[in-house]
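Subject: Predicted fold for HD family phosphohydrolase, 280 residues

User T.R. writes:
Posting the sequence so we have a shared reference for the thread.
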Amino acid sequence: MDAIEYAEKASEIFVLSDSFIRIKELIDDEASTIDDIADVILLDPALSGTILKLANSSFFNYPGKIDTISKAVLVLGITEVYNLVIAYFTTKAFKSISAPAEFLEVFWEKSVDCALIIKYLGFKLKVANAERLFILGLLHNLGELVVQQFEPEKVTQLNEHNDKSLPWALQKETFGFTFADCTGELLKQWQLPFSLIEPVRYQNEENFEHCTDETKLLYVAKRIMLSNHHSHFNVEDLADEAKLQELQIDTQMIKAVNEFCDLERLAILAILSPGAVTIY
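User M.O. replies:
I've generated the structure tokens; pasting them so everyone works from the same file.
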């Protein structure tokens, strides 16, 4: 199977709920009000609780208390709340996956790390509304879960590689596509915005000439994350030095982003993937 076929099969198993579809419809409808969106979110107590926990976390660092969904939409904005809705329903959709608990713990830890790293880089580089980048990092590698569902032995073999072969090169060699390709196709199946699909799909692109800023930042964030989780990699092994210089990302910033990640990781994992906290 190719990446599209894997994604099509996965979209039949890992389904975003009717609540998500209704919220998406409201957000896409210019006639909808904040209260319309809040009312649908409130129908799902677990979703409401997750959004309020994230909205009041140090991740957003809002000075006051956000105690209602309407206020969350008003303060954070519709786009950011929509991203939180995507984050919630994505983690929920994959709860039915056939995979060892340890694999899932590591997967979500890496995903949250990538999300925190890209958000921090966006903030430091003064990208507008840097919080929105978080969802790119969180979703960037869902293709690995898709392939894990159908080819667990091959995924295990890939993860056991400890030489300096680039992970995406090994994926291409093994499957004929990368996990990024598969992730992009799954997000397309889910009818998520193109603004999410494009950076995820091109996260391994070495030619920055036609890449968006979001794609460039995901390229770097993913590589910083991998260097932290795999001792045989340095950032320099994974990311071209010229690209780091183009984005004005130096050793000091990489050190700072890793410290930020260490501070925030546990709190975000506890909200989005409580099971992953057991590794701590």
